[in-house]
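How a chain folds remains the central question behind the approach discussed here. The record that follows shows the chain in one-letter code together with its fold in token form:
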Amino acid sequence: MFDKIHEIERMVENMGEGVIMTDKKGELAVLNPMAKQALGFNPKEKVTVDNLAKYVANQEVSTIFQKRASFKEYAPVEIEISRPHPHFLSAIQTLVKNENGEKLGIVTILRDITKEKEIDQLKADFISMVSHDLRSPLATVKNVIEIIIEGQAGKVTDAQQHLLNLADKKITMLNYLVEDLLDLSKIESGQMRMEFALVDVVEAINDVLTTLDSKVQEKKIQINTNLESEIPRIYGDYQRVVQILMNIIGNAVKFTDKGVITIQLKKENGYAKVSVKDTGPGIAPEDVKKIFDKFYQSKVSIKGSSKGVGLGLTIAKKLVEAHKGKIEVKSEHGKGSTFHILLPFSKKRERS
């Protein structure tokens, strides 16, 4: 038994990730060398449970090591460390229990994510730069095409009109893509400005349905709405709430062909809950967990429609989270999907 314990200790000591273990009293039981180094301590410096966060730069998360700190199990927390040089860690905490369900302690795993953040920033900077550079020439090309379509540059034949309309449609799609890229870049860099005010969710839903009406008619989709009366207003950015709903309801329209889309609005535990249910092809089980990932595309083919680049749901999720809300999806392959958007009711919050 002693040899076995010694082997486990040696394994923890030599792990490539930081490991911190506190017992049921909240006292420090294990701190391997990698954890000590990751947190900015030098090898000879004494570490206790009270000074584990000594070099944590973002003070809002510095309490995660405290004896009575509450935590979300398996939810990664990003930590910025100030020394010996600024770097970033991902911390995942797990509650350890015995066979009787009694708490034995907490295990924290630390992983250095500095390189990952640097790469993400480079990608964000590149996307932002390219998007800005595309915006102006695309606008110019679209204006030229519209002038020719209107006959201002001379008579246009039916064949030319068809090709010009096709080009105009593709330019519009590229403009949407550029706007999505810019929005994503702003959100991820913390530069997305939002003006918070009281928002009527029913009004936002109706605005979206009005915008999508021609597409709904074209695809012969039946829209059923069940909007609970006397829903309190939420505190949010109206245009961004419309954008969230446009991405989700627009997605349902995109994937539904001569089917039914049901939109429900009701109160639920302090939230305005919008549910959008479609009768489209549904989402494959392997896709459900990845559906909100950036640039992820489902393998489902869309009749008569081109695939996007996989940003709409990502942006919707990030905007919902910016409103302190939640977004969920339930789907069965071949039987449609249901998206639930939960936005908290009005609470005074500073503009961001």
User: Anything to note?
Assistant: The chain is about 40% helix and 20% strand. The CA atoms of residues 57 and 119 lie 21 Å apart.
